[in-house]
Write a structure and sequence with these properties.
By secondary structure, the protein is mainly β. It has no helices and 3 strands. The chain has a 3-stranded mixed sheet, with no helix packed on it. The protein is elongated. It comes from Rattus norvegicus (Rat).
């Protein structure tokens, strides 16, 4: 699941660190 831009977790999964 992609959430904005940030650290990549798993295949294509991104967790945003910035607001």
């Amino acid at each position: 699941n992609s959430y904005g831009q940030g650290i990549i977790f798993g295949p294509g999964s991104r967790v945003s660190v910035s607001p």
